[in-house]
Specification:
The protein is mostly beta strands and about 120 residues long. It contains no helices and 11 strands. Strands 2, 4, 5, 6, 9, 10 and 11 form a 7-stranded mixed sheet that branches. Strands 1-3-8-7 form a 4-stranded antiparallel sheet, with no helix packed on it.
């Protein structure tokens, strides 16, 4: 069983920054693909960023150049650094872990609100 706990969300003004963290339990973190999704009210869940076990990254067009995903395998933690935030980035952000055998686990989500 893998448990994921997100933190770091909150209220920020447009143009500001936040760093989300996702701490994972379990022994397979370093072998897993970690991803951040987000879901805004009334919208479908959207893949924001991916980082593979080897450190390769990929981003949604809407956040490319503003968000950075990273991982610290020694701490079993994945991060999402969010800069130049916009009101349209407002959403609940979820961390997920995809295991080598295909199972996917989700965190409980953390709210990010971008508003003046």
């Amino acid at each position: 069983q893998v448990q994921l706990v997100e933190s770091g969300g909150g209220l920020v003004q447009p143009g500001g920054s936040l760093r989300l963290s996702c701490a994972a339990s379990g022994s397979f973190f370093s072998a897993s693909v970690m991803e951040w999704y987000r879901q805004a009210p009334g919208k479908e869940r959207e893949l924001v960023a991916t980082i593979t076990s080897g450190g390769s990254t990929n981003y949604a067009d809407s956040v490319n150049g503003r968000f950075t995903i990273s991982r610290d395998n020694a701490k079993n933690t994945v991060y999402l650094q969010m800069n130049s935030l916009k009101p349209e980035d407002t959403a609940v952000y979820f961390c997920t872990a995809k295991m080598p055998w295909g199972a996917r686990y989700w965190g409980q989500g953390t709210q990010v609100t971008v508003s003046a």
